[in-house]
Specification:
The structure is a homodimer. Chain A is 49% helix and 12% strand. Chain A contains 13 helices and 7 strands. The radius of gyration of chain A is 22 Å and the shape is globular.
Chain lengths: 321, 321
């Protein structure tokens, strides 16, 4: 293990390998992570964090790649963090999708990294903010967080961004599927990709209808725009970038940026605290005290106690430790 | 809210509406759940719990329905719990899939219930064991837990069953996809469904190869069989039932059943304890103490503290409360 302070220093100077190693520390839930995060603290808060989410097949990777192209044209340094909660593997697991990112592979001002959650204790809300902090300290002006999959946790991770882009593609019932997955509640910008296909306008209409349903916005609130794109040909990407700028301005103007970042930090702190508590519970498993998890579990299986009473005793043992 | 004791009594007598209401209490994380679980405790432990998992499109619902038919032919009372972590809706959300279950809809000895996780605090390992307890107390001889999706959490839920059935279908790379999703580690029985399609034998070979890789079994250990089925025509279902019986016998003979149920109870207790701790953290959010989550989050955003130090203080506030 290299000296963490040295790694952080190299990452700050834009050393891609140091950035990769620091993100691996997050992925592996390394014990030295704590030191790394403390060392990174003074260098954060500069990157704009953009979440990109949507169902499989809507063109997330293509759209992310097109956004990278757009930001690079402005001279920005860009990070891409692809989060895959369903894969126990890192890096290679997403290689198929990442092929579309190849055009940026040699660009020294683009960091691309996929991160598996490996089912570790704290989940995505534990790992994502920490990986973001690494990319932020490495001087990224923008970090795109692409979530693969449509589970609740992915939606939640996308919602931890400063700005969340929700992608859809034309197809019957897509907007309804999106509503079911809960993603119509988290979008700041909606993109109907593959807009050259039949049904794109219908999808836009359907989406607008669903977004208007039950809308309770006050004057000055952000109204999520709907943008049509053909990301594979770069069409409409300028409109997406404009919408991202507009949302950023709105965040700055209204104090929304600070609110969102505080929310992200709260999720991160809570996830770290829960992981720590869960580790303590695991330690209690083998403890000889009467509140050991093994003993409590056996009592529940035997019908001698109920799981709530057992949980009370577990928490008791934890908090009096 | 009806009297919980009365609900439990009616559920025990096989009243389907009482069963449904009790599972709704789980889904809604109702405050009266604690009382309900305590009241259910004396009536548990009888049902065999069978997890059914696999990627979308392998025929989970059709296979589950065919298993219900098989168990009903033996006169068993059967519960089906379909767990959908990606949907914020209950019941209706899975109606599409559940169409295949219609043939059992009028059978008074079959309870079919889909359950959304709604992203509530404890997640699937919180809600699934509690819903199982309801179906168990209602006199089900077998409960089939079908998980929709292939995320890590669904795999974990399937693995909490007494016996876990992993479904695959012929198709290039399916076994490899399954390996990636981590489901090759949790299966007690593997079923290659749609075995009338091209490539079924290749999938069986590939699967057998992957299961053998890195196998470290002691004599007397369970060797997961691979069964071919065409669930839509009921073909091979008797073989699956035989394999389920064989695994059950093995569990009984080796003490494995108790080990698995203790593991399930441990997951449940831990999930309830974590949810309780998380609620306490939420309460600390607005507390005036210096360890309030809002204040800690603001300090992290301002770079005044790191998230680990903030989490320490949060846990401190929690455990000294």
């Amino acid at each position: 293990m290299a000296d963490v302070g040295h790694l952080v220093e190299r990452a700050r100077q834009g050393d891609a390998r140091a950035v990769a190693r620091l993100i691996s520390l997050v992925e592996d839930a390394s014990p030295s992570l704590r030191e790394a995060m403390a060392a990174l603290m003074p260098y954060g808060g500069k990157a704009a964090v953009v979440g990109v989410t949507g169902a499989p097949g809507v063109g997330k990777s293509t759209s992310t790649s097109a956004l990278v192209t757009g930001y690079r044209a402005r001279g920005a340094r860009v990070g891409v963090l692809a989060v895959d909660p369903s894969s126990p593997f890192s890096g290679g697991a997403l290689l198929g999708d990442r092929v579309r990112m190849q055009e940026h592979a040699l660009d020294r001002n683009v960091y691309i990294r996929s991160m598996a959650s490996r089912g570790h204790l704290g989940g995505l809300s534990w790992s994502t903010p920490q990986a973001l902090r690494v990319l932020d300290a490495a001087g990224c002006d923008v970090v795109l967080v692409e979530t693969v999959g449509v589970g609740q946790s992915e939606v939640e991770v996308a919602a931890l961004a400063d700005t969340t882009v929700v992608l859809l593609a034309p197809g019957m019932g897509d907007a309804i599927q999106a509503a079911k997955a809960g993603i119509l509640e988290v979008g700041d910008i909606y993109v109907v990709n593959k807009a050259d296909r039949d049904g794109a306008d219908a999808t836009v209409r359907e989406l607008r209808h669903m977004l208007t349903l039950g809308e309770r916005r006050a004057p000055g609130d952000w109204r999520p725009p709907i943008v049509k794109t053909v990301a594979a040909r770069g069409e409409g990407m300028q409109d997406v970038l404009d919408a991202l700028d507009a949302h950023r301005n709105w965040l700055d103007r209204t104090g929304g940026l600070n609110r969102r970042r505080t929310r992200r930090a709260a999720a991160e702190i809570e996830a770290i605290a829960l992981a720590a508590l869960r580790t303590r519970m695991g330690d209690l498993r083998s403890s000889r005290s009467s509140a050991g998890l093994d003993e409590l579990s056996a009592a529940v299986v035997a019908g001698k106690t109920d799981p709530y009473a057992a949980a009370d005793r577990l928490v008791e043992g934890l908090t009096s430790g």
